[in-house]
Specification:
178 residues, mainly alpha, elongated
Length: 178
């Protein structure tokens, strides 16, 4: 019996929840780029909070699946896979949104006046906008969702006294599984 972490159903779950988390992050980023105003620079961080809540919902779903998940560590690893897929997809979607909303985004001739009411240092070649978007897409999403992925299994799993060691790189034989 192959380890359940690489099951086809679980891979589609990682992709589904990662995509939902990435879309929930990207909607506020799209609003921020549409408004193009420095005074709304906290909007991408709201996207990170939404990303975190999607991962929290996934962790709650994992905790309710008792017979399949014998270990809290397995739940943490599975949530981290969903987070990594969500981060990759949120960076890709954010890149597409930047192509749509920022004129001459990759040509190097982007006007420095895209973001209204911004200080000069934040507006040079739109580096401040890109820094805000891509740092929240990677570091803030990983930090917030990673914290949820570590804490939620311990909070939502009821009986942790029968946890077993996770074998991620080995095949589980039938005698070890029972």
């Amino acid at each position: 019996m192959i380890n359940k972490i690489y099951n086809r159903r679980h891979l589609s779950e990682y992709l589904t929840y990662g995509l939902i988390a990435a879309i929930s992050y990207s909607i506020p980023v799209g609003v921020y780029l549409f408004l193009a105003d420095y005074t709304y620079s906290e909007i991408p961080f709201l996207g990170s909070v939404l990303f975190m809540f999607v991962i929290l919902i996934y962790c709650i779903k994992l905790a309710k699946r008792r017979p399949e998940y014998k270990s809290v560590w397995m739940m943490i690893v599975e949530a981290q896979f969903a987070i990594l897929i969500g981060i990759v997809l949120s960076v890709l979607i954010s890149m597409i949104l930047c192509f749509i909303f920022i004129p001459a985004f990759m040509s190097g001739h982007s006007p420095g006046t895209f973001l209204k009411h911004a200080p000069v240092a934040r507006n040079e070649s739109n580096s401040g906008v890109l820094l805000t978007i891509f740092l929240t897409a990677t570091i803030a999403n990983f930090g917030a969702a990673g914290f949820m992925a570590v804490m939620a299994p311990y909070v939502f799993k009821y009986d942790q006294t029968k946890d077993k060691t996770v074998l991620l790189d080995k095949e589980i034989s039938e005698t070890e599984a029972s």
